[in-house]
Amino acid sequence: MTAVIAALAGTEGFTQNLKYPVTQKIEHTDEYHGAKVQDPYHWLEDDKSAETEAWVKSQNEVTFGYLNKIPFKGKIFDDLEKAYNYPKYSAPSKKGDYFYFYKNDGLQNQSVLYRQKGLKAAPEVVLDPNKLSADGTTRLVVFSLSKDGSFAVCGFSQGGSDWQEYQVMDMKTLKMLPDKVEWVKVSGAAWQGDGFYYSSYPKPDGSALASKNENHQVFFHKIGTAQKDDKLIYEDPANPQRFHTVSTTEDELYAVLYVSDRGKGKDGNGLWVMKKGESKFVPVKEEITDFSYSLVENVTDGFLIETNENAPNSKVLFYELKNKTWKTFLPEKPEPLQGAGTAGGKLFASYSKDVTTRVYVYDLKGKLENEVKLPGLGSAGGFGGERGDAFVFYTYTSFNYPPTIFQYDIATQKSTVFREPEVSFKPDDYETKQVFYPSKDGTKIPAFITYKKGLKLDGNNPTILYGYGGFNVSLPPSFSSTRIPFLNQGGIFVQANLRGGSEYGEKWHEQGMKAKKQNVFDDFIAAAEFLIKEKYTSSGKLAIQGGSNGGLLVGAVMNQRPDLFKVAFPAVGVMDMLRFHKFTIGWNWIADYGSSDNADEFKTLYAYSPLHNIKAGAKYPATMITTADHDDRVVPAHSFKYAAELQAKAGATSTNPLLIRIDTNSGHGASNTKKALETQADIYAFMFANMGLVWK
């Protein structure tokens, strides 16, 4: 009890004396369809100004001053570091004589890329990104081998930015060639013969981290040449807010062009192909609608294509190239198809049943051969390979099942453990259960609840409720070692599968889009009410958390139900719903959100935009906003303006801290291991301190 009182004295007393930096207000008004909207912190959108830099410094001084007074913060970091410190591997992938995989020894800032001849030979280092920058924030984000494995494109990101630079490695010497390709974004490296396709933007005017990105171009880079000599393959300057990306088929016979028009609110894509040796793409699906098309692989006389056209749960069709006809290969099922791919002369199709993975194997005529038996109800991914492969790898995981790599033999249809994680804790000490709770309109929403076995469910447990709910993104079961110390403190972790995701196909997605976005917020609020009603926790012990679109979620429900939560963590959130499309690739989100340029959609966005709905004098939960200076996906101005408005309207009357934590040399996610652990330690410390708890 004494320790609890000491912790309260060290945090709550300090909260009441918090003095937030005074953020200058300016006269700036935007007009939307006759409505005038004040934007007094508009100046914070300039990420390069001295004034913004000074504001960031002053906010961080307050935030880290507060966090550093929490007496058990160091203990939390030590516990997280210990839990995270075990070897972590990716599943191997085969190219030529070599198997390639990533490994992190435990606490390395970046995972190291290895290769080995056969599965039993000694591995050799291909590339160690930890040696590329002093602070370990340069990441290897693309590694694409040529068909014969002689060369590889290595794509690097610096400081967490989405911008990438491509270099080419000679796989015989493991040395970089002089080739260098800059300003790559929303791209892969698709090999064909002596070079590769990639997508890039013209060099931005103004801030590289905030300027709007337009005119996405596809180039072909030939090995041994300069970027200025790259051949322009495709562009569409008349439609500057389209994405153009290219992949190639395994045999490199076809280049496949994907064209999307999300800036105009269209959720699907067009699909074009170009045969090797030819100079023009021909359409498979020319018109861009809300239907998506993805080429699985080329087979005799045509292509296998995954699509949701007239199939909300998706299906696979066969497109005959000569006659341009379609026929069903895999019909739509009651469960949504999450992905399909080929390997070893088979097609592997992954479905989601109540947010858990089911994998089925088909021959290339579409006949079902077998289901891949998984260890339990969790998530499985992988199954990639080439036509001649005799086996594939996949990784299986769940909330209480650390990622484990399995080898699946195609001929025997059997899975065997290839590599188990060497964790220092016992996964069996924890349990996960799935519940279905009613939302405001009666829709049943699934959620996973994880805690340590034997925990007393008396309504007094510190609980984190996590959600996303958007962009057709599913939140399947996943393992996090940094969650274990929290569970050991009597914590409960809840992941709600809100509408807007892909958990139940396109219809589920559509129920959380545009004019129906409020459903997502209602789902999240209902989850909190369910947890309190069922005695998992109470309002005084409930924290909410979400990042990016999930940061928007947290900001919106804080405004709508500030009484329901004790602590809130809106991370890298889209907080200004009226101006999001004016930065970098924010226009890409119009397909999910709508746009303030549209009169009807403006009304919807303005009604829930976190920045524009903060209530003066309201008692908000203890809030720690997190963002980073190199986030060029959701620019930090969203969080800057939101924090300034929250402090101005509620700071004086709130007994809870309203802080913003701004990381440096990091992006939309932590740019290295150390930063990730530091951020998580601060989150747990802030949460426990404001709940009157001590980390033991």
From TrEMBL:
Keywords carried by this UniProt record: Hydrolase, Protease, Serine protease
Class of the enzyme per the UniProt entry, highest EC level: hydrolase
Catalysed reactions, as listed in the record: Hydrolysis of Pro-|-Xaa >> Ala-|-Xaa in oligopeptides
One family name in Pfam for this protein: Peptidase_S9_N
Boundaries of every Peptidase S9A N-terminal domain copy: 21-420
GO terms for biological process, alphabetical: proteolysis
Sequence ranges assigned to domain Peptidase S9 prolyl oligopeptidase catalytic in this UniProt record: 477-691
Gene Ontology terms, MF aspect: oligopeptidase activity; serine-type endopeptidase activity
Coiled coil start-end: none
GO cellular component: cytosol
EC number, UniProt record: 3.4.21.26
SUPFAM superfamilies, per database record: alpha/beta-Hydrolases, Peptidase/esterase 'gauge' domain
rRNA-binding recorded as keyword: no
Protein family membership: Belongs to the peptidase S9A family.
The protein's role, per its UniProt record: Cleaves peptide bonds on the C-terminal side of prolyl residues within peptides that are up to approximately 30 amino acids long. Has an absolute requirement for an X-Pro bond in the trans configuration immediately preceding the Pro-Y scissible bond.
PANTHER family: PROLYL ENDOPEPTIDASE (PTHR42881)
Protein name according to UniProt: prolyl oligopeptidase
Organism ancestry: Bacteria, Pseudomonadati, Bacteroidota, Cytophagia, Cytophagales
